[in-house]
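Please decode residue identities from the backbone states below.
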């Protein structure tokens, strides 16, 4: 009888251990599924961050090109203004004096009188 009680106790203990290991196994499977889901989320997030980084890199390149174009436009405008200033200075230097203009008019009037 003692032997039977020991055997029953061992069977009960084995059954309890089996039930506990099944519960632990189910918990581990849930945890594994959660970790796989998290891994999938992390991969998607990593892909999105890589895409965002590439987009920002392209945007920075486009901004650099825009700034270069702006600088070229400003340089061209400055060159045009400088050319205009030089032309104005040159034309001011060529401008005849009022006395010379009066002389030219009188010569024209004299020529007109002679031709009549």
């Amino acid at each position: 009888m003692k032997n039977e009680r020991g055997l029953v106790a061992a069977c009960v203990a084995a059954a309890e251990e089996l039930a506990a290991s099944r519960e632990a196994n189910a918990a581990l499977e849930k945890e594994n599924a959660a970790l796989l889901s998290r891994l999938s989320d992390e991969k998607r997030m990593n892909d999105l961050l890589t895409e965002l980084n590439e987009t920002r890199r392209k945007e920075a390149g486009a901004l650099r090109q825009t700034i270069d174009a702006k600088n070229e436009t400003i340089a061209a405008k400055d060159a045009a203004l400088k050319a205009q200033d030089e032309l104005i200075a040159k034309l001011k230097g060529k401008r005849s004096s009022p006395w010379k203009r009066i002389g030219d008019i009188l010569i024209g009037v004299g020529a007109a009188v002679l031709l009549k």
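Observation: The chain has one domain: 2-115.
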